[in-house]
C-alpha cells in the first residue's frame, strides 16, 4: 500500500469509529458534526457550509432534518437580516456536548496499539494537520469537528 492508500484506510477507521459513537446517540455523523459545530456559539449558515465542505442546499436539508428533532434553530442575524444564523437549542447543546465528550474520549482508541512514543507522534501530527487546515471557524481557532 502506498501513502495515499494508507490515508484512505485511516479515514475509513476514523469514520467507522465516529459513526459508531454517533449511532449510540441516535444521530447521523452529519447531524453530530453539525451539532458540534454550533454547540458553543451561533454560526452563519454560509460560513458553516464552507467550513463543512457542503453546498448551501445540502446544509439547509441537513439543518431541516436536525431542526425537526428540535436540536438546532435558525434565526436572522441582528446585524444583517439577510444572514441566517444557526445555533444549538438547549437540548441540542446538551447532546452535542455529550457526543463531543464521547468522541474526545473514544476516538483516540484508534491509536491504542501504538507504543507511547508513537501515540504522542500521532497526536502531534494530527494536531498539526488540523491546525493548518481550513476546518476552523472564522471567529475562533477551535476545530469544528470532534
From TrEMBL:
The record, for Gene3D superfamilies, names: Winged helix-like DNA-binding domain superfamily/Winged helix DNA-binding domain
- This protein's superkingdom? Bacteria
Query: What SUPFAM superfamilies does the record tag this protein with?
Result: Winged helix' DNA-binding domain
- Domain HTH marR-type, first and last residues per copy: 1-131
The protein in question is named MarR family winged helix-turn-helix transcriptional regulator
Organism of derivation: Streptomyces xiangluensis
Q: What is the lineage of its organism?
A: Bacteria, Bacillati, Actinomycetota, Actinomycetes, Kitasatosporales
